[in-house]
Amino acid sequence: MDDVQVQWIEKVTLKDPILIEGLPGVGNVGKLAADYLREKLGAKPLATFYSKFLPPQVYVSEEGLIRLVSNDLSYRKAIGPGGRDLLILGGDYQGMSPEGQYELTERVLNVCAGLGAKEVYTLAGFAQGHVVEKPRVLGAATSAARVEAMKRFGVVFSRNDPGGGLIGASGLFLGLGRLFGMEGVCLMGETSGYFVDPRSAEAVLKVLTQALGLTVDFSDLEAKAKEIDRIAQRIHDSEPKAAEGPAPPREDLGYIG
Amino acid sequence: MDDVQVQWIEKVTLKDPILIEGLPGVGNVGKLAADYLREKLGAKPLATFYSKFLPPQVYVSEEGLIRLVSNDLSYRKAIGPGGRDLLILGGDYQGMSPEGQYELTERVLNVCAGLGAKEVYTLAGFAQGHVVEKPRVLGAATSAARVEAMKRFGVVFSRNDPGGGLIGASGLFLGLGRLFGMEGVCLMGETSGYFVDPRSAEAVLKVLTQALGLTVDFSDLEAKAKEIDRIAQRIHDSEPKAAEGPAPPREDLGYIG
Amino acid sequence: MDDVQVQWIEKVTLKDPILIEGLPGVGNVGKLAADYLREKLGAKPLATFYSKFLPPQVYVSEEGLIRLVSNDLSYRKAIGPGGRDLLILGGDYQGMSPEGQYELTERVLNVCAGLGAKEVYTLAGFAQGHVVEKPRVLGAATSAARVEAMKRFGVVFSRNDPGGGLIGASGLFLGLGRLFGMEGVCLMGETSGYFVDPRSAEAVLKVLTQALGLTVDFSDLEAKAKEIDRIAQRIHDSEPKAAEGPAPPREDLGYIG
Amino acid sequence: MDDVQVQWIEKVTLKDPILIEGLPGVGNVGKLAADYLREKLGAKPLATFYSKFLPPQVYVSEEGLIRLVSNDLSYRKAIGPGGRDLLILGGDYQGMSPEGQYELTERVLNVCAGLGAKEVYTLAGFAQGHVVEKPRVLGAATSAARVEAMKRFGVVFSRNDPGGGLIGASGLFLGLGRLFGMEGVCLMGETSGYFVDPRSAEAVLKVLTQALGLTVDFSDLEAKAKEIDRIAQRIHDSEPKAAEGPAPPREDLGYIG
Fold first, then answer.
1. CB–CB contacts below 8 A, C to D
2. What is the SS3 assignment for chain A?
């Protein structure tokens, strides 16, 4: 068996597509954002990546049907004259080991380079260790020009965050992407790190859709954010006050995404 | 050395065989069931799988003879006009790492596909974290038609179980099996998760034998179940009452099989 | 780099050589025995095995010279008419992971099969968890004939020991050896498991040398055993009596060799 | 993707170059020394090694630009008649696993052998577990002649240090280097093991530059050492006296480099 196995669902020809990556990670921000975008844009399944670097696991649907865990590539053709074709990568897991991270990322990039992608946006969460009322979007990029371009959409390039760099798929897609001649940007929504965070995902998507000239309705994501707020409030109310200790150290939370 | 090494014991031609998998796992239900079936049907050894993904271990028999740990494939030719040829996979261990799980499962499926298998039943235990008097058989399948077919034999397809999906060989044989064009069903016998459970294995085998139109005498398995009952009772009696704490969390038990 | 890299020191032609394996393990019994035999028989270095499955480590001699950790094969030509050529495998470590154990063992066996070896003796310790005054030698073998042959030299084939089988090189050399058509015996000297145990190594070597018709002077090994006795006694004397708790559970000690 | 991927920045022809290795480790002595030498000699980037044996991580600069973690080879042509061409290897990490250590080291050595290197100096720290006022430089080498040569520069070849040998890149470059026909020396600066230690790096570099006939200005390194002294003093002053326990056991500190 190949270490990473690609199952093609459709054959398409894309014109200069942009790759958008959002896999599970801190606050599930990247995955929430990529999945939401895929749904709202009506992106179509293009290829499935199975791999021994993912857990040996199947999910079972409510109907009792199994599905092997995977990473999944969808596409969406451009709408209108200024539009760009898109590739969206989502999935159940990131690679389970350092080697797995490299192997999976390299394979996805290889496939996307073959489809003509020269540009990549990676979506992630950035854990602050405390509740974030209005999540900012932090950035990192492969060139100074892209840094400047992203600042125009309100992205924050902070001298201190992320201090130790980015660990995981969102950084690796940029780092390995350069070996494929791809330029790119990582957008990290601030989040507490304790809950899945649709509000942070929305902040990230607002930047991304502006940058790509897309229009997306965020009401479903906002509804989900309010639901999480309610759950968080309920847990907070049920906790004895004395138990409120200091936040866990930021180092454990901030940099995986 | 090949990562997985196949030693053929015999060369056979099978007609549309069904693969039945039962490896060690929760309550050892799958292994108990597969081993019992192999014995009662008089299945013959066909191939042995050695692998570096299994522990570096030999067993020593009472006579002092060593045997390297392995997975083992047996076969049994159909009896009667409506019967089907069978392949039964048992073994000492599942693969020791995620990669090992994938590699071993892929290799066994590859061999079985070469023998003509297009259908697979995987047998496993499902830990409930408490004693189960009358174990139900939970199911998961690769198609809606198979879900319906199994319901007729009393298999329960629950909205909530198994919640997080299946981790291990029994799920992977179905998930990877589809990449080989195989359809299949996973049968999970409820069990406490604390003991090896011949009664749960019997429940699983009753469904399987009905589905396959086989007749098997379960008296030896029932005798074994009664023996385990006696051991469990003795342990229970010897425990001080105060020590009876709450059951361990189900998440640690339910999904590996 | 090859996963296992063989450096030949000499080219020899051997006649039906017997492979003797003794790597570090419980009580270091196997390594002590193999190293002692190599020295006393004046065996000559034949090949060195370097591998990424060994630690990334060099030893530094008292003179300041480095040496990369390895497994090492020596040979010794037969002396006299009834004698047999010998291959002796020692080394600094066993493979560091299950995969490493398989890969290293397979490679050594491959080399030895190429040199004509069809027979293998593996030497190991068997931890009893308590002080053993007169260590017995426990056995395991690949055939009933060898079991019987070894019983004649006092080797004990116990119904209960080793219960869970053998984990590590000494078992694997027999298990994988069979795939190379080799027959063999594992000789396990009883030991406490707390100290390196030259006395147990001597017990093992006494059986082995009898079986092979060799004469070896054990006085140096006995001197070393007495030295260890003195160290053990001193530690024992310095311990407060109350601290003498029960022996650790045997399962943790008995089966790695 | 190759396990280790080499990106060439320039093509050069070198004459009998000497390889100098300094990767992160104890007290960061090796990396500090190699980086300082590279800067002061104006060495030029030659090749970058990316690898799945390094963490899946990118660093983000203050300007927001990402850089994938790597090992990096620089070169510097000889100056003057007696000078030698140099290759300097630095990097963000050593390989993350034993296998990774072997694979990365082997690949770098392979590249350097291709460039004509037959000689290697590895730079490292040696943790003493206590503050070292005047760090000595300990040594290990591949030949007695090199041991003698290094003694002339004040390098200490101690009977007891390093006791258990060297674990990590600095040892492995010598050990594997010999398989490439390279001779070499490891220079280990004594250090506490608790801080990054520019003073120890300076001690190492003083030996190295003498041995290579180079002249390097150490004032920047000394300034850095004084800065670390101030930080250490401040931490020491702020600690309650009672908290000064015994030093941690040396075994945990001394041998990785």
1. 82
2. CCCEEEEECCCCCCCCCEEEECCCCHHHHHHHHHHHHHHHCCCEEEEEEEECCCCCEEEECCCCEEEECCEEEEEECCCCCCCCCEEEEEECCCCCCHHHHHHHHHHHHHHHHHCCCCEEEEEEEEECCCCCCCCCEEEEECCHHHHHHHHCCCCECCCCCCCCCEECHHHHHHHHHHHHCCEEEEEEEEECCCCCCHHHHHHHHHHHHHHHCCCCCCHHHHHHHHHHHHHHHHHHHHCCHHHCCCCCCHHHCCCEC
